Amino acid sequence: MARYQVILAYDGADFFGFQRQADGCGQRTVQGVVEQALRRIGWQGRAILFAGRTDVGVHASGQVIAFDLDWLHSTDALLAALNANLPADVAAQAAQLAADDFHPRYDARARCYRYRLFCQPRRDPLRER
């Protein structure tokens, strides 16, 4: 079994945040859809590791996750398999093998946040999401 590091991008508009909800309320989360996609390709873990959480409606372009998986193919094949099973609003951007003890949160060297506020008197459907 190997540990993989994957970089995710997602449009958070239709998610109830990143982290799966413990109370099983059935809300759609990024963690939930990623774990579903991983299960479809043979992952049997309980929970992925992730660098941080985002709130309802927040997007990400470089969310780092990690998971352990018995995968007999290349990391490119893993990336393709993940993307084939992820919904249209989530994409795996990169995948690589990681150290067995790698944790996206604790091994992060930096974080970058960009806040974009749209404050106009009229709606602009091309900018609001």
**Radius of gyration of CA atoms, rounded to a whole number:** 16 Å
Content of β-strand: 15-25%
CATH architecture: 2-Layer Sandwich
Number of strands: 4
Shape: globular
Fold topology:
Blueprint: E1 2-10, H1 30-40, E2 49-50, E3 60-69, H2 75-85, E4 90-98
Antiparallel strand pairs: 1-3, 1-4, 2-3
Helix pairs in contact: 1-2
Describe the structure.
The structure is a single chain. The chain has 129 residues and is of the alpha+beta class. It has one domain: Pseudouridine synthase I, catalytic domain, N-terminal subdomain (Alpha-Beta Plaits). Helix content is 17%, strand content 23%. The protein has 2 helices and 4 strands. It has helices at residues 30-40, 75-85; strands at 2-10, 49-50, 60-69, 90-98. Strands 2-3-1-4 form a 4-stranded antiparallel sheet. The longest helix has 11 residues, at 30-40. The chain starts with a strand and ends in a 31-residue tail after the last strand.
Brief digest:
The chain is of the alpha+beta class and 129 residues long.
List keywords for this structure.
single chain, 129 residues, alpha+beta, Alpha-Beta Plaits, four-stranded antiparallel beta sheet, 2 helices, 17% helix, globular
